[in-house]
């Protein structure tokens, strides 16, 4: 028992010590004598945060020290964790209790916009105390250096007198006229596939190269455009040339690159194998075998230079080309430039820049940094005062070379993310006398101030760049300030962010950002400026609220429950859509990690002829596209099977539908089949054509027969056996005004439909032939072969005109206007969506291509039967799920009509080339072979009068790009099933 009592006393004593340690006194009364407290201190600040402005006045705070237990020693006060670009003065101070000290804080002009937790610490002997201080560095609203235009800008010319930038925009088939004051778009001038652009010596006329067989001129005062088709030069062996780039000389002559289509440089899409000289005074053309990838000229229009091996210098006064002696470097020349009067020439290779005078004496050289040796020389130009040389390279930036001392000063960044699909298209377009460089990139104009800080070249041999991660969320509601995480790793110290020009503070050591509010819905640019002045732009990569910007189709059938795409910003993960007030299912929506989103929605049945709005709602708000789509007046689907071709008879207002062994006659007025005509000879037929006067209907069989019917008296059917090899006749048939049918085959034949006489047609007329409605013109085209060969066929003598072929255009359909003055060749393949339409004149000059609006991408393959409208203003091109209406004057999409059910797509490479679509006489009703029979679609107005839809303009990021956006070389590559660049 004694041992248990001892243990109990020990536990009680232990508990007493624990309790006593938590009390001021133990046992009651004053502190125990002989146990003194240690002297100590605390720090306090006159304010808990300091607000600074970049480059602004210093702000002061008071630091006080309070002694405890007799402390009276001086305390050394300093700061830790100061943000980059913020300084404290003095570096440290000594503060004694009762006598406050003063600290002054200032932010440099390149300090990052941020909110940072800093610590003010005091040290005295072994004692250390601290107080928190938040430092806020604010920035003012800045001018956004990126100005969105839409499409993709290629070359540009800045007119100092008018203060206008003229930019070629081939993705939208237009010349954009942009104010040099506020960068608003003053005009959008339709132009066929424009690429290079220069001002002629008269100071009022622009000459524009195209990705087609013509150049055009533009009057800067009236904005009137004039076409100048380039005639066949040098004979057929040269092949069909495009003329993408130009420079205008003082004499009135223009140097033009002649490009064999399909053989352009892999990196520079305007490279060519020839130089053509156009004399604008007499419209004469000369061709020279000088291969080049660019043309440059002096500001006085007196001198021009072009590459190749060797280099050539052209004198406008002498009208001569001179070889430039650059020694062994000639084999490696990647760029060149001329100063304002041609007195100084800059030639650069991958390793050095050589400066020469007009007599080709070397004045000096400058080394090319290794960081810019890749992608060097896409563009180069002297500044207007000749003091500096700017050399563009990729990614979009340019090296600044002192053109007096021949020293490399560093570089200026002009990058915009996401940039052009092909970075080689990003372009230094022009420099003005105020020291502004205009860069075409990401569908807009990036302005770079040449008077700004030039960034030193990295000693490591690569671009230093600016690391500027985006927020992990790229859309928030309007009128909302929100703190968002940034993608890791954090930005470089000293980085400043701006959202639409508004400063945004970095938080939590650069892992968070405080996004400013905006009262306006839609996308904004994010600008990041590093402490070295390096600027990176994210073009329209953040958005506020919900803003739908476009719908892929503007015409809908009143029944059929088709689907369309809606483009816009801020849809989030689960948007809700309504059409005309009706909620509709969302089939799919793209990831909200990119500001621009795409949703596929199902369309409800609607009222015939009615217009409807599209509304979207999500966690970011709501937005509406007013009157975005219209329902056409009517749609009917007539059950039928085995249809091979449909053909409208304007003389009798009847529709003919061809089957393998019979011809069915349909009355559109009653929507009834009224007659079936058996076809003779016990063989299958596959194509038919109606004579221009309506007196004969010719139906051909691949077994070598032609059946001829009088539509007014269809019972007796005449037939004739052809001389063609069975199985090769017929792929196509067309009838001239002389009632003579031309059939492609082996051999090609002509049938006199009145006498049934057979005549062989010599030579090659292609695999497919089409006639104008009046029968005055016949044209042929090669199908699905390695050329873009087209043919003009004399309808009486059957002589054939065959201009040079194009390398990468494999036509699959052909349309001819009613009078034969216009021809459209269409390229489509079953494994790629959409089509390429080439627009020809009657002389078979290829003058233009179609361009898709990015908010109306095709998502189905070609259907045969493309046709002109009665007035020739529109080409109708059917796809599996829609019908496109292409404006023949501009190459742009007027409208897209969704079909109520799938149309009949063609098989490849076998199968007939019979049209699956036809129009009535006024062009207001479309008849098409569809999945369950015959679809009849009544338009609100005749096709010629369909207004051009106002498609939204933007430049799609790479991950939102469709096969058929971009320039013609990209689209051709996509259709060939290859990588597009």
Give short descriptive properties of this protein.
Methylamine Dehydrogenase, Chain H, disordered N terminus, eight-stranded mixed beta sheet, 981 residues, 83 strands, mainly beta, 45% strand, 2 helices, Immunoglobulin-like, five-stranded mixed beta sheet
Short recap of the structure:
The protein has 981 residues and is mainly β. It has two helices and 83 strands. Helix content is 3%, strand content 45%.
How would the blueprint of this fold be written?
Blueprint: H1 2-21, E1 40-45, E2 49-53, E3 59-68, E4 75-80, E5 86-89, E6 93-95, E7 101-107, E8 114-124, E9 127-138, E10 146-148, E11 156-159, E12 164-169, E13 174-179, E14 185-190, E15 194-199, E16 205-210, E17 214-219, E18 225-229, E19 241-242, E20 246-248, E21 253-260, E22 274-279, E23 284-288, E24 295-297, E25 303-306, E26 311-315, E27 320-324, E28 335-338, E29 344-348, E30 352-357, E31 362-367, E32 380-382, E33 388-393, E34 397-402, E35 407-413, E36 416-417, E37 427-431, E38 436-441, E39 444-449, E40 475-476, E41 482-485, E42 496-499, E43 502-507, E44 512-515, E45 522-529, E46 535-544, E47 547-551, E48 555-556, E49 563-569, E50 576-579, E51 582-584, E52 586-589, E53 596-602, E54 611-618, E55 621-631, E56 634-639, E57 645-649, E58 654-658, E59 662-667, E60 672-678, E61 687-690, E62 697-701, E63 705-710, E64 713-721, E65 733-735, E66 740-743, E67 748-752, E68 758-761, E69 768-771, E70 778-781, E71 790-793, E72 800-801, E73 813-816, E74 822-827, E75 836-841, E76 846-849, E77 867-868, E78 874-878, E79 882-887, ...
Parallel strand pairs: 2-9, 36-46, 40-46, 48-55
Antiparallel strand pairs: 1-3, 3-7, 4-6, 4-8, 5-7, 8-9, 10-39, 11-12, 12-13, 13-14, 15-16, 16-17, 17-18, 19-21, 20-21, 21-22, 22-23, 24-25, 25-26, 26-27, 28-29, 29-30, 30-31, 32-33, 33-34, 34-35, 37-38, 38-39, 41-44, 42-43, 42-45, 43-44, 45-46, 47-49, 49-53, 50-51, 50-54, 52-53, 54-55, 56-83, ...
């Amino acid at each position: 028992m004694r041992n248990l009592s001892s243990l109990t006393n020990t536990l009680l004593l232990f508990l007493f010590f624990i309790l006593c340690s938590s009390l001021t006194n133990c046992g009651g009364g004053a502190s125990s004598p002989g146990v003194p407290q240690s002297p100590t201190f605390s720090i306090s600040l006159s304010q808990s945060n300091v607000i600074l402005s970049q480059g602004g006045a210093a702000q002061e705070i008071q630091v006080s020290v309070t002694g405890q237990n007799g402390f009276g020693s001086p305390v050394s006060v300093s700061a830790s964790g100061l943000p980059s670009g913020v300084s404290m003065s003095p570096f440290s101070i000594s503060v004694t209790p009762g006598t406050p000290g003063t600290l002054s804080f200032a932010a440099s002009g390149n300090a990052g916009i941020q909110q940072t937790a800093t610590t003010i610490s005091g040290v005295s002997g072994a004692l250390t105390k601290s107080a928190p201080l938040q430092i806020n560095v604010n920035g003012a609203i800045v001018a956004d250096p990126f100005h969105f235009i839409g499409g993709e800008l290629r070359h540009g010319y800045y007119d100092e007198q008018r203060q206008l930038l003229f930019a070629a925009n081939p993705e939208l088939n237009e010349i954009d006229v942009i104010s040099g004051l506020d960068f608003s778009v003053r005009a959008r001038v339709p132009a066929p596939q424009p690429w290079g652009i220069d001002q002629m010596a008269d100071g009022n006329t622009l000459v524009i190269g195209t990705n087609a067989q013509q150049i055009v001129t533009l009057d800067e005062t009236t904005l009137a455009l004039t076409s100048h088709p380039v005639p066949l030069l040098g004979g057929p062996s040269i092949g069909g040339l495009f003329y993408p780039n130009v420079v205008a000389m003082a004499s009135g002559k223009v140097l033009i690159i002649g490009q064999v289509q399909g053989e352009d440089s892999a990196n520079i899409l305007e490279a060519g194998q020839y130089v053509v000289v156009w004399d604008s005074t007499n419209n004469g053309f000369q061709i020279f075998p000088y291969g080049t990838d660019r043309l440059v000229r002096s500001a006085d229009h007196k001198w021009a230079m072009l590459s190749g091996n060797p280099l050539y210098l052209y004198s406008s006064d002498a009208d001569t080309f001179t070889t430039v002696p650059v020694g062994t470097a000639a084999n490696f020349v990647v760029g060149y430039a001329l100063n304002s009067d041609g007195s100084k020439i800059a030639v650069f290779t991958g390793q050095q820049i050589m400066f020469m005078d007009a007599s080709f004496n070397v004045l000096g050289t400058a080394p090319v940094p290794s960081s810019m040796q890749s992608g060097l020389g896409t563009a180069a130009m002297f500044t207007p005062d000749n003091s500096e040389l700017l050399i563009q390279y990729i990614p979009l930036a340019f090296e600044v070379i002192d053109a007096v001392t021949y020293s490399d000063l560093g570089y200026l960044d002009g990058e915009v993310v996401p940039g052009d699909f092909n970075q080689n298209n990003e372009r230094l377009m022009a420099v003005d006398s105020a020291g502004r460089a205009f860069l075409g990139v990401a569908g807009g104009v990036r302005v770079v101030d040449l008077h700004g800080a030039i960034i030193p070249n990295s000693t490591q041999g690569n671009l230093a760049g600016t690391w500027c991660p985006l927020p992990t969320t790229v859309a928030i509601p309007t009128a909302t300030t929100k703190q968002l995480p940034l993608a890791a790793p954090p930005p470089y110290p000293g980085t400043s962010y701006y959202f639409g020009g508004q400063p945004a503070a970095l938080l939590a050591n650069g892992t968070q950002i405080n996004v400013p509010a905006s009262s306006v819905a839609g996308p904004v640019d994010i600008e990041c400026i590093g402490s070295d002045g390096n600027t990176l732009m994210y073009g329209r990569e953040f958005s506020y609220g919900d803003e739908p910007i476009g719908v892929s189709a503007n015409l809908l059938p009143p029944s059929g429950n088709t689907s369309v795409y809606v483009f816009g910003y801020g849809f989030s993960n689960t948007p809700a859509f309504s059409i005309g007030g009706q909620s509709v299912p969302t089939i799919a929506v793209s990831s909200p990690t990119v500001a621009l989103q795409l949703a596929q929605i199902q369309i409800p049945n609607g009222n015939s002829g009615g217009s409807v709005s599209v509304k979207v709602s999500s966690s970011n708000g709501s937005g509406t596209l007013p009157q975005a789509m219209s329902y056409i007046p009517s749609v009917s689907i007539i059950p039928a099977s085995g249809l091979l071709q449909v053909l409208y008879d304007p003389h009798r207002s009847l529709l003919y539908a061809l089957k393998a062994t019979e011809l069915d006659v349909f009355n559109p007025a009653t929507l009834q089949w009224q007659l079936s005509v058996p076809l003779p000879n016990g063989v299958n037929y596959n194509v038919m054509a109606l004579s221009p006067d309506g007196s004969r209907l010719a139906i051909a069989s691949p077994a070598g027969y032609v059946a001829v019917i009088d539509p007014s008296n269809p019972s007796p059917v005449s037939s004739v056996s052809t001389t063609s090899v069975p199985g090769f006749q017929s792929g196509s048939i067309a009838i001239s005004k002389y009632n003579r049918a031309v059939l492609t085959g082996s051999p090609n034949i002509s049938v006199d439909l009145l006498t049934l006489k057979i005549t062989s047609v010599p030579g090659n007329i292609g695999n497919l032939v089409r006639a104008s409605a009046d029968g005055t013109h016949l044209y042929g085209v090669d199908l699905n072969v390695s050329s873009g060969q087209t043919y003009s066929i004399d309808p009486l003598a059957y002589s054939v005109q065959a201009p040079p072929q194009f390398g990468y255009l494999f036509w699959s359909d052909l349309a001819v206007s009613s009078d034969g003055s216009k021809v459209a060749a269409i390229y489509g393949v079953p494994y790629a969506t959409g089509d390429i339409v080439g627009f020809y004149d009657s002389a078979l000059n290829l003058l233009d291509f179609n361009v898709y609006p990015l908010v109306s991408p095709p998502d189905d393959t070609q259907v045969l039967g493309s046709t002109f409208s009665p007035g020739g203003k529109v080409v109708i091109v059917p796809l599996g799920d829609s019908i496109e209406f292409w404006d023949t004057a501009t190459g742009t999409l007027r409208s897209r009509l969704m079909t109520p059910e799938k149309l009949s797509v063609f098989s490849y490479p076998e199968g007939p080339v019979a049209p699956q679509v036809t129009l009535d006489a006024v062009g207001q009703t479309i008849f098409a072979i569809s999945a369950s029979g015959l679809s009849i679609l009544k338009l609100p107005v005749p096709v010629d009068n369909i207004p051009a839809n106002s498609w939204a303009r933007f430049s799609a990021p790479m991950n939102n790009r469709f096969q058929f956006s971009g320039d013609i070389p990209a689209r051709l590559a996509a259709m060939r099933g290859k990588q597009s660049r």
